[in-house]
């Protein structure tokens, strides 16, 4: 097993701190909730830019625990991050490392995203909205709109990964 350098530990700690801040702000300002998930997910890419998987796991764990502490244990607001948005960067990195077919991986990840969104709708919203017609077709809405949204989000995540990797490489060259 490769020894984790102090640089990678610092990158993981920075990742956890930034992700915790974005997640906490997103949860407290409910209108920015998805933005908090998105930016926290991007922050989680920092240790992965150095292929530091242990650093990522530590960062993810610290982010989840610290965010829960800072948001007064609002577990249900943390659920989408803990089940999907926080793990998505790792899955993308593992997909690239193992060279799995891009389309198969995208289909599996879209199914994973749709499942998490269904669980959020089922357990957080109690399978009801204020619009009865919407409740009747919500599973199909999650599958169709969720899959389309995921395609956009996954593409955005790969682009952000490139920016994060470039930025970390530049910082490392300067030190």
The topology string of helices and strands comes to HHHHHHHHH
Fraction of residues in helix: over 70%
Distance, first to last CA: 25 Å
- Please give the largest β-sheet: none
Strand content: under 5%
The stretches of 5 or more residues where confidence is low (pLDDT under 50) are: none
What would your notes on this structure say?
By secondary structure, the protein is mainly α. Helix content is 81%, strand content 0%. Helix 1 (6-28) packs parallel to helix 4. The two termini are 25 Å apart. The model has no long low-confidence stretch (mean pLDDT 90).
Topology:
Layout: H1 6-28, H2 33-43, H3 45-48, H4 53-70, H5 75-85, H6 88-98, H7 102-123, H8 132-136, H9 138-174
Helix pairs in contact: 1-2, 1-4, 2-5, 5-7, 7-9
